[in-house]
């Protein structure tokens, strides 16, 4: 499947202004491209109880799952900060749940810079259910 990185960035950029970030003032939007060619969008939504904040990437992955899809091939992460930002550890784990080899596109609308990496580069050893099963088996 050909991945149009610029189109994916454009989709995420379209919803960046919907980000709710009154505490950090770090606005992030994400676009998840699936193997079916559909794109799912998400933005970060902060909360006064910081632990309840949801990242844009997990928001977009949740939209993908709610629509019945399970195969993300690329995730664009767009911010208005000077530098592109990578997904946090929690988002890396959630993306890896569905595709540990997903393409990760990081883009700054302020500088126009884009960084593209494979999730395996950013997160070489995701936790898997087989890891959990091994921990429960005392033998």
UniProtKB/TrEMBL annotation:
The record's annotation in PROSITE patterns points to: CYT_DCMP_DEAMINASES_1 (PS00903), CYT_DCMP_DEAMINASES_2 (PS51747)
Its Gene Ontology cellular component terms are: cytosol
Give the matching InterPro entries: APOBEC/CMP_deaminase_Zn-bd (IPR016192), CMP_dCMP_dom (IPR002125), Cyt/Deoxycyt_deaminase (IPR050202), Cyt_deam_tetra (IPR006262), Cytidine_deaminase-like (IPR016193)
Which GO molecular function, any one, fits this protein according to its record?
zinc ion binding
Assigned EC number:
3.5.4.5
Q: Which domain of life is it from?
A: Archaea
For activity, the cofactor(s) needed are: Zn(2+)
What UniProt keywords apply to this chain's record, in alphabetical order?
Answer: Hydrolase, Metal-binding, Zinc
Q: Where does substrate bind?
A: 44-50
Give the catalytic activity. cytidine + H2O + H(+) = uridine + NH4(+)
The protein's job, in short, is:
This enzyme scavenges exogenous and endogenous cytidine and 2'-deoxycytidine for UMP synthesis.
Q: What is this protein called?
A: cytidine deaminase
Instruction: Identify the species of origin.
Output: Desulfurococcus mucosus (strain ATCC 35584 / DSM 2162 / JCM 9187 / O7/1)
